[in-house]
Design brief:
By secondary structure, the protein is α+β, with helices and mostly antiparallel strands. It is built from nine helices and seven strands, in the order H-H-H-H-H-E-H-H-E-E-H-E-E-H-E-E.
């Protein structure tokens, strides 16, 4: 590449010199013809005659030498000016070849602020944008494949149980009506779980692909949280768990979709009941922090391992072992909650240590 550029540069310089000599010869020839035809102005003809009278043949070698020196100086000057330009052009050419090969990590060095320097900077920007677009496409394909794999796995488990129990009923492989009712109840329970998983999957895709429509209105978070806790009273009594609500006076106003936010807090409270039953208590706090309204749902059950915390809001992610044995959720609840909160320009995070797990939701105050 470098040798080719040097050859091109030298050829370019020599071509300019030859073109200059030819132009000079043509100019002198045209003057000569016009002089003999009498088409030149009088003062030009006068200058030509004076030149012919005063011309000294012995100066021809000197003029020739001066001309050659001038051409050499001109060539050297042009080479020095053009060398940097060709070098920058080579860098851009090399960069485009690397991009054509798919190597978008390659960056073209930018050493000047002229047109070639700007072109190199633009090429680097294009390379970065292409790399970002390809990365997003790869992530989207990976996410789609993971989604298909996880959905297939999670749907197959209850579906297999339903088919198994229905086969037993179809083949009359039960002892009495009590066992028949047991098989029917299990199949029905698995069907409800399957329906819940399908609904969660549908809502997750709507939330995360921007297809969900939010009906904004002024919401009092205190009233919303009170309504959410009320519907859990039967489950709280069954689990022997209490909710300790700590709300400020005067309420906390936010501009939000009440139904969607209710889904978030219902999910967090339900998780607190499921996984915090050992602590027999759940703290539900709401307070103002700067320009945000903050809601914390705290349970005192088995803590979440630190390694699992960064992935809690990933779809289909479940914390293993003791925390997942109580219920087989869809693994989409927290992912849906995160999507809804972020659509409200808020944030959701979790912290867990020493038999205490906190889910914290922050929303802009109205």
């Amino acid at each position: 590449m470098k040798n080719n550029s040097q050859k091109k540069l030298l050829l370019h310089t020599v071509s300019i010199c030859i073109l200059s000599i030819i132009t000079l010869i043509l100019f002198v020839g045209v003057l000569y013809v016009l002089h003999h035809l009498g088409l030149l102005p009088l003062w030009v003809n006068k200058q030509i005659l004076l030149f012919r009278i005063n011309f000294r043949p012995d100066l021809i070698p000197v003029l020739f030498t001066v001309t050659i020196l001038f051409l050499l100086v001109f060539m050297l000057y042009h080479l020095l000016l053009s060398k940097r330009w060709f070098r920058n052009f080579d860098r851009i050419s090399q960069g485009t070849k690397e991009m054509a090969k798919g190597n978008f990590d390659y960056k073209i060095p930018v050493y000047s602020k002229d047109e070639l320097g700007k072109l190199a900077a633009y090429m680097n920007q294009i390379s970065e944008q292409l790399e970002r677009a390809l990365s997003e496409e790869r992530n989207a394909i990976q996410a789609k494949n993971e989604l298909i794999t996880n959905v297939s796995h999670d749907l197959r488990t209850p579906l297999t149980s339903i088919i198994g129990y229905l086969r037993l009923i179809d083949e009359d492989r039960y002892k009495d009506e009590v066992e028949l009712r047991h098989y029917t109840a299990v199949a029905f329970d698995k069907s409800k779980r399957l329906e819940r998983m399908v609904n969660d999957l549908f809502e997750y895709t709507r939330v995360n692909f921007g297809e969900i429509r939010l009906d904004y209105s002024e919401i009092d978070l205190i009233e919303l949280l009170t309504q959410c806790t009320t519907q859990f009273i039967p489950l709280l009594r069954e689990m022997d768990v209490e909710i300790d609500s700590q709300f400020p006076e005067g309420g906390l106003k936010v501009l939000a979709d009440g139904d969607k936010l209710a889904r978030v807090f219902e999910n967090l409270i339900a998780n607190g009941i499921k996984y915090g039953k050992e602590g027999k208590s759940i703290d539900l706090k709401a307070y103002k922090e700067g320009t945000n309204a903050v809601v914390e749902v705290i349970n005192y059950g088995i803590p979440i391992p630190q390694a699992d915390l960064p992935h809690l809001f990933d779809r289909f992610y479940r914390v293993e072992k003791s925390r997942s044995t109580f219920t087989g959720g869809s693994g989409l609840g927290l992912a849906i909650s995160k999507g809804i909160v972020e659509r409200h320009n808020g944030s959701i995070e979790a912290a867990s240590a020493d038999m205490k797990t906190i889910f914290r939701v922050a929303l802009p105050l109205k």
